[in-house]
From TrEMBL:
Participates in transcription termination. GO terms for molecular function: RNA binding. GO terms for cellular component: cytosol. CDD domains: KH-II_NusA_arch_rpt1 (cd22530). This is Probable transcription termination protein NusA. The gene is nusA.
Length: 133
């Protein structure tokens, strides 16, 4: 709760969710739709100020009520071609199509990026798994 209060007071952006990822030593903030620019600030000044204050890596994701758009936002800065959500065997699956050059960025070192997106998609849109194609 204190991370949310600090982030909101220093950036002016509304935080909908905050995940403390101890394994990867980072904080992941989900901000209200349309407030990504406010969270980052001109030239990254807001996010850098928060980062130096709490001395942790910070990642910010813009929320969307549309699951496909939210997943796409979660993978930024990688460019996502298409996200298709299907129901298979009572599970919600998201197929994410990316350019070959962005596959490494989408997966991340030791799978940390795909792990983050799977966690967020499950928490906010009940997506059980994400498959990168």
């Amino acid at each position: 709760m204190r991370y949310i209060a600090l982030f909101e007071s220093m950036t002016g952006a509304v935080v909908l969710d905050c995940i403390v990822d101890r394994e990867n030593e980072r904080l992941i903030f989900v901000v209200k739709q349309g407030e990504m620019g406010l969270a980052i600030g001109r030239g990254g000044e807001n996010i850098n100020r928060v980062r130096s204050m709490i001395d942790k890596k910070i990642e910010v994701v813009e929320y969307s009520s549309d699951a496909s758009e939210f997943i796409s936002n979660s993978f930024q800065p990688a460019s996502i071609k298409k996200v298709k959500i299907v129901k298979k065997d009572n599970r919600n699956l998201a197929y994410v199509e990316v350019a070959q050059k962005d596959k490494g960025l989408v997966i991340g070192k030791n799978g940390r990026n795909i792990q983050k997106v799977k966690m967020l998609a499950n928490r906010h849109h009940n997506i059980d798994d994400i498959l990168v194609i």
